[in-house]
Amino acid sequence: MRRAAALCALLCLALTACSPAPAKQSSTIFAMDTVMELQLYGDGAVLAESTRLITELEKELSATDPEGGVYAFNHTGTELGKSAAELFLRAMDISRLTGGAMDITVYPVVLAWGFTTGQYRVPGDEEIAALLEKVGYTKASGFDLPQGAMIDLGAVAKGYTSDLIADLWRQRGISSGLMNLGGNVYALGKKPDGSPWLVGVRDPFSDTFLGTVEAEDVAVVTSGAYERYFERDGVIYHHIIDPKTGRPAKSGLASVTVIGPDGTLCDGLSTAFFVLGLDRAAEIWKSCEADGASPDFDVLFVTDGGEIYITEGLEGSFSPTNDYDTGDVRVIRRG
Ligand code: AMP
Ligand code: MG
Asked: Helix and strand tally (H, E) in the chain?
């Protein structure tokens, strides 16, 4: 009897060992104004389904496409679609957490600078002051905004999309995959060999990587001045606007990377922390205690001077590349 059980166990083991590992499937698409790379281990049909979902979300969340859902909300007061409405509410929560440093109602100002159209210009002080009258998440009552106000979900759309794609992959039984939605990475599970995914963090001062973070079931989202900018009379103007001044944020940071299980939150926070700067962002991180109830995330900051700061959860998971020394990395602790 015992021999039969042992034989059966051996047979099961042999069968598992022989069953082929799920095949790697990958695709590259252009959506939401960026190149997106998806890679998963499993059924290729899931990739096609993911592409359809991204295309649907792109339409529903777009503020620039005259057929887009947010465009219609801004211009004709049409109700937001289900995903856009959900994301609107999530964005409002992130505005509250960050004191309005990330604020989807900043859109009229972003438009004036030309960041969504590519027709760049430097608006004058009076124009900015007039536009700021319409800006402010606290002026919204539910989905009702003051006359002339407009929203743009661009600061959270890719993180939200990565969350929905990761949910889809899980529902379809995928246990290993990686997506890079233009700087918004999400790592599902581990690599097929059982090791964690290694996600490169871009060096904001060059085209190379600053280092890597180990990632498993987390988003890794970076906001940086280098992502979109223009130059006028020798001055560089980048695309992340401080809603308090209506001008590109100058907080002493070159980039911020937020890592955590909630891609929407990480995306919103990376934008907000870029506006707030190191000290105020670190305060928010400290206020979110690692108690399982508070928002769960870690942060990597790169200052304008090239210093790297990581919150303590990244100790051991972040490895700088050869250009940087581990000694250059400062750790921010709660205690
Ligand atoms: P991200 O790349 O996620 O940091 O988002 C930046 C994009 O969000 C910009 O290209 C603008 O369209 C928009 N944006 C800029 N500043 C803000 C802000 N303070 N709050 C919300 N959205 C913003
Ligand atoms: Mg963002």
From this structure: 9, 16
- Contact in structure between 48 and 72 (CB atoms under 8 Å): no
Residue 102 DSSP symbol: S
What tens digit of pLDDT does each residue of 164-194 get? Answer: 999 999 999 999 999 999 989 999 999 999 9
Report which protein residue has its CA nearest ligand 1's atom 15: 240
Q: 26-332 has which fold?
A: T-fold (3.10.520)
Phi, psi of 29 (to 5 degrees): -135, 160
Specify burial of residue 327 (Cβ count, 10 A radius: 0-12, 13-18, 19+): exposed
User: CA 298, 185, 190: angle at the middle one, nearest 5?
Assistant: 85
Q: How confident is the model at residue 328 (pLDDT cuts 50, 70, 90)?
A: confident
Ligand 1 pocket, CB under 6 A: 102-104, 106, 110, 115-116, 152, 154-155, 223, 227-228, 239-241, 243, 267, 270-271, 275
| Domain range list for the chain | 26-332
User: Are the C-beta atoms of 261 and 221 separated by less than 8 Å?
Assistant: no
**Is 274 in a helix, a strand, or coil?**
helix
